[in-house]
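Office hours follow-up: a student asked to see two folded examples consecutively, so here they are.
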Amino acid sequence: MKKYLRLLLFLCYSAIAFSQESFIAFYPKDVYEKANAVIKDYKLNLEITDYNKFKLNKYRVITVFNKQGLNCLDTYEFFSKSTVVRDVEITVFNALGKEIKKIRKKDFEENSVSQGSVITDNRVLYFDYVPTEYPFTIVYKSEIVSDNTAFLPSWMPISDYNMSLIHSEFEIKYNKELNLNYKILDPETKITDHSIKVEDEQELLRFSLDSVNAVQKERYAPSMYKVFPKVMIGLEEFELEGIKGTAKSWEEFGNWMYTYLLADTEEIPEETIQKIANLIKDEKDNLKKAKIIYNYVQNNTRYVSIQLGIGGWKPMKAAEVDKLGYGDCKALTNYTRSLLKAFDIPSYYTIVYGDRAKRDLVEDFVSVQGNHVILGIPDKENIIWLECTSQDIPFGFQGNFTDDRKVLIVDKDKSKIVRTKTYEAETNRQITTGSYKITESGTMTSKITIESSGLDYLVYRELYTAPERDKKDHYLNTYSYLKNLNIQSLNLINDKEAVLFKEEIAMESVNYVEKYGNDLIFHYNAFNRMQKNSRKDPDRLLPFEIERGYYEEDRIDILLPEGYTISELPSEISIHSEFGEYDLSFQLKSENTVSYIRKLTLKKGMYQNDRFDEYQKFIGKIIKGDNIKILINKK
């Protein structure tokens, strides 16, 4: 239907010159071919009249081809006491460019961002358009004014995969007395020859980007922040909810944060200080004291997102957290920091971009960045990182929400950008040991122990508190290739002290072994088998990224049935590649016992698109090794 409609539009309107003013949903094939949506025109006009005053006008024309494209609409505006939405309007056009709906400001819904566990004085004005047909085109216009110049808008003309762009520009008019800085983030992994054009005149900056066709998201593709260009702007002197700030250097910016956002929040009630003093009285080591205090915070507080006052950046006072027993990431981090400070234990309030996909603060552009706060405790040359929003995560364990990225530690006169802990492949370990026995009738019974550490600990830790049914389903899915699987017993051990998760499992699989005349044949690898290889990408455009590496080691004994012997062990396999290593060996321990050792290391890295075939071959060899079958003969 879509192809028919596009052909019809082409026949009907091929004589019409393509223009920015036309709202007909017709585009050349290379523009719409991989697109869920096309941004036909996107203009941001920003006027900064003072260090504490700006006005922003948006104009956006976007054609949506399918349901996935609805995610590209962005038909909303945030506002607060210091940010006012003066006007907002949506006009909807059908495929032929005929206006079918007009949505004015009074038609928009207003809502607080305070649903669930979030408390905030910020609100959102939005409209969820539900289309009756595709494609359609939306024209979106808005105007906002704000006193919060700490949050000047950035410009990301292409904000997702499968989005085409015809034209976009970002124009900034500003008072010449203001020190306005900008940073063009043009990722090394860019996949288009199109570059942002810059016009830099007195009191006027203009950025533009034209004619970029949609990029299909491919497997292992980097996050969009590593692929698509972006422009950041900022003032050296800004205002945040009536407080004047400075961003000339990270040290000055950190001093401002410490002075105006943290310094008056540190007081702890005397009663609590006495409680903590009793808890740590027998400890001399600061790190051991810090661990006790961290456990106290976990046992006596809970996480609630709170974004009140000073743009949501100022934490609640430590005394309030102590009284109420809850707080957001800022409040709980600052509370822990204040408790530590009360006993002369230094720590750093730290700003980070929290996300499963790694994202750095932009080190060479000083500005308000980040969306999350963690705590750092200096330990000689290292920093121990604490996630203060979790009630059960081990002391010093970060997890994949804040690992391996550039962050800002806020410390009076010593604020700076540092990198959080990197979990290398050998740290993310999964060690499987045990044995299984096969019978002549084809049944396999096993007892294995799996120990997971590093980031693997985080993955399996969630099983510990899961309902029994969910636990069973997890193993049935994990070992779905085992026929008629029965979990006979399961013991899960969460060792927070060692940051180790242990699984002790007894399983039975009926018909695991196949008869081959009088002989038997079966997969040697029953518990950690890589099964599927990704399809080839001969026309791959994007680089591919392995964000985190890992190490696996399996040491398993196989007990053969009485009256059977093995005439020949499988050959050893040793594969070494820049992507990782794979080693497999077998040993006949006795007449009826075969053992195998399997080791796999997958390394993190960013690789060019033309290396993907080689990576696939590497994975293919692992799959082949994991799926070797053993033939045993009847005596």
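And the second, which I mentioned at the end of office hours:
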Amino acid sequence: MATFLYKLGRLSYRRRHFVALIWVALLTLAGVGAASAPAAGNSSFSIPGTEAQKAFDLLEQRFPGVSADGATARVVFKAPSGEKMTDAGNEATVRETVEELADGSEVARVTDPYQAKAVSKDGTIAYAQVSYKVSGMELEDSSRDALQDSARDARESGLTVEIGGDALQTVPHTGSSEIIGIAVAAVVLVITFGSLVAAGLPLLTALIGVGIGVSTITALASALDLGSTTSTLAMMIGLAVGIDYALFIVSRYRAELAEGRDREEAAGRATGTAGSAVVFAGLTVVIALVGLSVVNIPMLTKMGVAAAGTVAIAVLIALTMIPALLGYAGRKVKPMGEKGKRFGRAPKKPERPNLGTRWASFVVRRPIAVLLLGVIGLGAAAVPASSLELGLPDDGSQPTSTTQRRAYDLLSEGFGPGFNGPLMVVVDAKDSDDPKAAFSAVGDEIKGLKDVVTVTPPAPNKAGDTATITVIPGSQPSSVTTENLVHGIRDAGTDIKADTDANVLVTGSTAMNIDVSEKLNDALVPYLVLVVGLAFLLLIVVFRSILVPLKAALGFLLSVMAALGAVVAVFQWGWLSGLMGVEQTGPVMSMMPIFMVGVVFGLAMDYEVFLVTRMREAYVHGEKPSQAIVTGFRHGARVVTAAAVIMMAVFAGFIGSSESMVKMIGFGLAIAVFFDAFIVRMAIVPAVLALLGRKAWWLPKWLDRALPNVDVEGEGLRPDSRRGDTDRELVRA
């Protein structure tokens, strides 16, 4: 591995014009494809194997022309104080608004509040239901404008009018904080390298890689049904790893220059050694992201595969374009130790130990104390995770400043908290001898269940073999009580099927959210076993050790649990919510735990590979285990710290997103990187290695013979180096 990458690095350095031309051509091609492709819509949300999805599919078959996943809007009216919605003037305004809404070309139907009995008992609140032929992300701007114009016209009469539903759903924006994150990364790079040119290389390559990845996703969005969140995630992960991977190779290049090697040789050696770590670190991230497909949620699978593709591009760019750009930069990239001259400071004396050396020496002397402090600290941070509540965001999780949230609150006020999460019961009586009797039996059975406020009469299709029944719970959509009601209806359906041969299915957004949460919870353990198992095997090959990969996996579990605890504290409990821009607390997004397990594991292994490979390299070259730990920190701690700060800054930049899911992911990944890089990898890992000593690098002989030798440490380069040094000495003589 190291020898191949060494040759690749030297080739890229020599053929830099060709390498740069290839990547610029790929970026241009991807950009043209993105510009000419149809606009990205919202990925269709389907959950194969769940009852809610089966009901949706059945509705499309039995109710042709009715789009089960079409956009909806609830235009909610509230009368002024002292008036009723049934007053003549207010009723005339509402009917006029309904007529305006029905004129839209994408509108399937609009319900009249007075005919549909959609007026609250006290007469102060009413709503009109607007159903569209297409999904919310596919709606034309003219349809949204018409919806908002109708509401604005109704407000002029004195009514309070708000709009709920997904018809106003738009592509989320990330805000200016994303740019701030990149700016912080630039500052950290300048401080680390002491050179604007050296600092610019990782940023340039990361932006090119992300540009290619995101543009490719945009170009394929329509054909592959990729949602807007897919490109956002790819940008988030791609920027973070792209900067970090390039940072490690540039840093190793400067270290090789400091040892007296010429620039082409240094570029080859940096690619052969640090590049090997980049390859295996990238592989762990790709495994974690592609592994999300085991959950069998198409949207999550697409997000993972797209982000994995961007990571693969980041690895390839780091291995080829960084050496090429180093060739262009020439002497503007200084050897390590010379950066201080650029800022008017004398370089530090070589014999003075740096901060990484001093910290590692302290940990080696006090491993038990450091280990206990780190584990207890992460354990305390993980405590809130014990009260984790999962759910999917709805209008109730929107900020109070939005019309969707105000409409949600008005409906709760007028019709009860469960009105915002109606359940749709689909009765398939195709095999029943008496479908009408089956429909009535289902309705009567549901009325007898707890927490049921309203049960509408069955609405059969034209064939009369299938009917829908709307059930209004008494509790809010995200409550445990509503979840119990869904299971209660499904349990009752089992008995009904035995009596009438009719199938009873529960669907709707609330039931879908419940099914998604359960599916994700069921998939968490298998996913964890798959991803951690594959990465464990990969790390055995890299480190040629059993205990080092095991320690890496256990450390990851600590950091991910602590990160989940922080997410619960902020987004569920409301701690520091104002600072994070969280206007509404509530359940944590259902896919957050499994998503964090995948992404954080991959990123955690990045730092494990980068830091521990330097220790392994020193140990293989003859140093004692304790000294190898110090050597690894002397060479890698500063760079790993810079990489972690950069990754945290990039992830934290997405906290400014208008999309609650992106905001939560950005915060969760940023805090997870902090816990894993600075507590697990910088404290717990060296403490454990110090306690294990030589046992840390133990590997059974039979396994050592069976494993392939990938030579991450660059051992295969040493003879070439000695010959090269000898040749240069002879030439100088």
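Two things to take away from it. Residues 509-543 form the longest helix (35 residues). The CA atoms of residues 81 and 161 lie 14 Å apart.
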